[in-house]
UniProtKB/TrEMBL annotation:
Pfam families: Transp_cyt_pur (PF02133). It is found in: Membrane. The chain crosses the membrane at residues 54-80, 92-115, 135-152, 159-177, 197-219, 231-253, 259-280, 311-329, 335-356, 377-395, 401-421. GO terms for molecular function: cytosine transmembrane transporter activity. Belongs to the purine-cytosine permease (2.A.39) family. GO terms for cellular component: plasma membrane. It comes from Lentzea jiangxiensis. The keyword Transmembrane helix applies. It is a multi-pass membrane protein. The keyword Membrane applies. This is Cytosine permease. Keywords: Membrane, Transmembrane, Transmembrane helix.
Amino acid sequence: MVEASRAGRDDQALSRVPCGARQRWWSVAVQRFGQTTALSQVLLGATLGFGMSFWGAFVALTVGAVLVGVVAVAVGTIGWREGLPTALLSRWTGFGHAGSAVLGMVVALSCTGWFGVQTGLAGAVLANVAGVVPAPVWALVFGAVVTVIAACGARWTAWPSYVAVPAFLGLLAWVVLANVNDVNVLGGPAPGPSIEMLTAITLVIGSFAVGAVVSPDVTRFHRDGSDVVKQAVLGVTAGEWVIGLVGVVIAHALGTTDVMGVIGSTGGWAGALIVVTVALKINDWNLLSASLGLVNFFDAVLSVRVSRAQVTVVAGCAGSSLAAAGVAAHFSHFLVLLGVVFPPVAGIMVAEYHVVRCWRNELVSTRPLVPRSAPSWVPATVGIWLVAATAGEVMPFGLSGLNSFVLAFALYVAAGRWDLLRIRTRRATRREVTGKAA
């Protein structure tokens, strides 16, 4: 009973989510919507609207949101079936023990970076409204608050969504009504330098590329496969599309991408508090995914089971420091990088679990425990990941994120057909099989 309690507090970081811990779909969907209902998404929409016509930005947001939603469903279904977080699940979905450690670290670094972006934006809004304490100080204070909440675990992440999502939607409606008076805003030209359509779609994909890949961190709490689809439509596709379009309208109406300044001048302290609440909502999941990746890394590399809460604190301190250092200033470059690095991961996981199935039987046959063995490492997967990510970026046609996803999927299926994936496996200890904490 004590061990079960410890596993619950650590959010089943190294074990399957039991049936009793599964949640209603709408609770998970609201939390997922909270991840996309963020100031960074409005900033993305404003960036697109500043360089594109309204309808051009509309097309970019629609295509990008649909593609991200499809990937989120494909990967999220695996998490629902197996009840495992992304980093741990990747051991049996193409990456092996060593590969999962690398992926866990990459996810941890990326989610910590996203935490820094959101924390920096929240700090800037608070500084703009308060006018006394500089933004880096606000960022550090905000980061500390979110870190404490995330360290308490997934059971603490639902309530901010119920408050933040409707409040932020109301704030955006207020901002639009107060600042948009030109009825011709939908038909006007872009107020700034032009952005190409393919670049715009890549930015949209990059805005939630990490979120799509780490979908199992969320969907492992679902009770049914249809829940994965419903939460993806509401939480991912609708969130990306609706919130992004608000940013487009603001950019066209005011000719600026300074969303933080517009919200601060329009909403005052009330607007700032709403923005902070929304940033808290997405940032608690950023830290949860980062901590899950780090727990898997230490378990895979050092065979040490660290506390998820403790590594959450470490990740939170690191992300807050990045925010105070101004990581948000490199927002667009960060999105472009993520749009290329992470789609191949989803392509490999989907190909292994749904098509090649080298290790799917180990996952299915050992439920509700974790499999006794996993491949030590899969060299072919590492090569496919690198080739797909690089080729997706340099191909002179198509979308880089979509290209890398499709290429990784095709190469992995080919590697499976040529029997390049089966290699020496690593035997798990009794402690790892039973999921007991050290």
